[in-house]
Design a protein that fits this description.
Layout (H helix, E strand, L loop, with lengths): L2 H38 L3 H20 L10 H16 L6 E2 L7 E3 L5 E3 L3
Antiparallel strand pairs: 1-2, 2-3
Helix pairs in contact: 1-2, 2-3
Length: 118
């Protein structure tokens, strides 16, 4: 193997690493965005998005060997996913947003109206 061939291989590896890091940064942003939407509106759809984005982000973290930098550590990502999964597991995860009231309200699986306070 020549010196030029080794240099080219390392350049390709560096380019792949850079692409993975850019993907990790983009997913960090998307995960934070979906988390903020979930915090403001704890519906099943928002919770499901948090779980899905978290899974994607954790997968990229694994592919980088834990070297991904960002605002959230993998343990923080899984903690937020656990909160979202808890919402999905409860009846609160089965809420549907009502548009017939001037106040933020939802209907649960039993047909009862639930009002958002705060």
């Amino acid at each position: 193997m020549t010196q030029q061939h080794r240099t080219q291989a390392t350049a390709q590896e560096a380019q792949e690493l850079q692409k993975k890091q850019q993907k990790a940064a983009q997913l960090q942003f998307e995960f934070a965005k979906s988390w903020n939407l979930y915090i403001n509106d704890k519906t099943a759809a928002k919770a499901q998005e948090v779980v899905a984005k978290g899974d994607q982000l954790l997968e990229v973290h694994k592919s980088l060997g834990g070297r991904a930098s960002g605002a959230l550590a993998p343990s923080q990502i899984t903690l937020r996913q656990d909160y979202a999964k808890e919402t999905l597991a409860k009846d609160a995860g089965k809420l549907t947003k009502c548009t017939d009231s001037p106040f933020p309200s939802y209907k649960n699986a039993k047909g009862q109206t639930v009002y958002k306070i705060g």
